[in-house]
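Researcher: Next entry: Dihydroxyacetone kinase (Streptomyces brasiliensis).
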Amino acid sequence: MAQVPQTFFDALAVRTWCGHALRALGQAREEIDAINVYPVADGDTGTNLYLTLESAVGAVEAVFSGYEVGAAQGAGPSLAEAVRAMAHGALIGARGNSGTILAQLLRGMAQVFAADGETTHTDGQGLRLALRHAADAARLAVAHPVEGTVLTVASAAADAADGAEGDCGTVARAAYEGARAALAVTPGQLAVLERAGVVDAGGRGLVAVLAALVETFTGEAPGAPVPVRGVHTHAAALAEAHARGVAAAAGGGCDDGAEPGGPAFEVIYLLEAGDSAVDRLRTRLDALGDSLVVVGGDGLWNVHVHVDDAGAAVEAGVEAGRPYRIRITHFGLGDVHTRGGALPPRERVQRAVVAVVPGEGLAGLYTEAGATTVLARPGEPPASGELVDAVRRAHAREVVLLPNDAELRHTAAAAAEQARTEGIRVALIPTRSAVQGIAALAVHEPERRFDEDVVSMTSAAGATRHAEVVVAERQSWTMAGICQAGDVLGLIDGDVAVIGTDVTATAESVLDRMLQAGGELVTLVLGDEAPTTIADRLEARVRESYLAVDTVVYRGGRQGALLLIGVE
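Model: Predicted structure:
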């Protein structure tokens, strides 16, 4: 990460800004969580903002990694590539209302910076335009904007930037000062903030992000303290808010109006759909609940809403397009939506399993088995913060973490280390495939001593060979020879072992090779695009050729691979 001040806003400035902003949100996360009293004192705004930006940082770093060879020769990503990656990463990783709105702010800026794809950098004028477009785009994304929230702070930043003449550093500092001044007066705009004696949590997070922008262009973070006005501990703020009957939709730093006795569920999903379908979806979801924020574009959207009928909200998404990464959170009995007294502390369970899964079908299977799941979209692995959040959601003293992907080993290790600093005992089992995770979960016994359970699960995973059948995207060298784009590849334990033209025939060849070393149970996980007859063909082959070997079949949904195979 470059540390020298940036004169213009270019790809390197995007990377530097994202890094500074993530660090700033990490340092301020607990403080922001603590002042989160609107619309629900659930203390997650800082965490949601951090996780959203962490996803943006991961996407930007991936773009730069793709240029590592060219970088030595002076090549690197364009401004357009960097800002699009930033916006896309934030969109797919957006958490809660606060994170969703931050994603739209970044997307609004990216639309201006990437308007001319040939431009390598922009100046102060370009930054002014980007900040204005970001504030306007975020306001349009919220169904019912309320003043005294992050939207107010974003608009104030854009207004201040509009009046600034000079380079990017001058404009960034003006935006920061405008946002900081607007944040200080948010308690006078929202009664709930006034009563709790705090500023808006989402707005506080945005000020931290803008401070990082100043540091990017000047080399120094603004020294003036950011106002929080009478910061309560989260517990005190929660108690005061409840005592005064404050109840509204959850999501931390949210910008929608909310009424006491609000909806019981938070529903979040990514959606692939066209603009006209999303317009209809907005109308329908607005009638179903509140705290509605829909951000995105170009066929990909992030939808956030609070409703009493979670099924209806998901069905509305199905009618509009293809929803995935669906997350439904019940605010629970005793939540501020349903009662006025303070929440009793939730009792931790002794042990839980957290697993990364590649498809909706497997997510359902793992959930039925009692695991807390993190759904990984093909090509977009979860960040460490998302894994840490899942460990927290499991609410257990002991957690077994199953990454189910060799590429996630370091990410999972970082998440485990972070969770340990919070007093959670975490054991990481380095599963490299979801079928190994299934084998581990099958022998999981929460009543056993933790170490014994981990050893048993690790042994089951290690005794399971794994394979996958995929379609080659490009010509490349493999362990089995040269493959062409469109060839069917059979990978065993991560290496290409078979190159074919027919999916079923390739799968049969892979299965035969795996069973040559013996086996007792074959697990097949079918992707959405797998041939409809492939499961029957493979089951018949096992039954006819391998005595005393059982077969179990699961539907994995959209999991990237056409077929996953496990042999225990």
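Model: Note for the record: DSSP finds 20 helices and 18 strands in the chain.
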